[in-house]
Amino acid sequence: MAKAPLSLDELSTRYGPHLNYKPPGGWQVQSGNQSEKLVKTHCCFCGQQCGIQLKVRDNQVIGFEPWEEFPFNRGMLCPKGVKRYLQGNHPDRLLDPLMRTAEGFRPASWDEALDFTARRLRELQEKHGPDSVAVYGGASLTTEKAYLVGKFARVALGTRHIDYNGRLCMVSAGTAYKGALGVDRAPNPWNDIAAAEVLMVIGANIGECAPITTDYIWRARDKGARLIVADPRFTPIARNADLFLPVRPGTDLALLMAMLHVIVRDGLTDPDFIAAHTTGFEKTVESVEPWNPRRAAEVTGVAPDAIERAAHWIGESRRAMLMHARGLEHHSKGVENCEAVVAIALATGNIGREGAGPIMITGQGNGQGGREHGQKCDQLPGQRSLTDPAARQHVAGVWGISPDDLPGPGYTAVEIMNAIHSGEIKGLLCLCFNPLVSLPDANFTREALERLEFFGVIDFFLSETAAHADVVLAGSLQEEEEGVTANVEARVIHIQKAVDPPGNARTDSAIVCDLARRLGRGQYFPFREPREIFEELRRASQGGIADYYGITYEKIDQQMGVFWPCPTLEHPGTPRLFEDGRFFHPDGKAHFMSLAWRESGDPVDAEFPIYLTTGRVVSQYLSGTQTRRIGALVDQYPEPKLEIHPRLAEQYGIRAGDWVTVTSRRSAITLESMVVRTIRPDTVLIPYHWPGDRSANRLTHRTLDPRSKIPEYKVSACKIEKAPHPRPAGPRPPSGGA
Ligand SMILES: Nc1nc2c(c(=O)[nH]1)N[C@H]1C(S)=C(S)[C@@H](COP(=O)(O)OP(=O)(O)OC[C@H]3O[C@@H](n4cnc5c(=O)[nH]c(N)nc54)[C@H](O)[C@@H]3O)O[C@H]1N2
Ligand SMILES: Nc1nc2c(c(=O)[nH]1)N[C@H]1C(S)=C(S)[C@@H](COP(=O)(O)OP(=O)(O)OC[C@H]3O[C@@H](n4cnc5c(=O)[nH]c(N)nc54)[C@H](O)[C@@H]3O)O[C@H]1N2
Ligand code: SF4
Ligand SMILES: [Mo]
Question: Which of 312, 345, 360 delimits the end of a domain?
Answer without folding.
Answer: 360
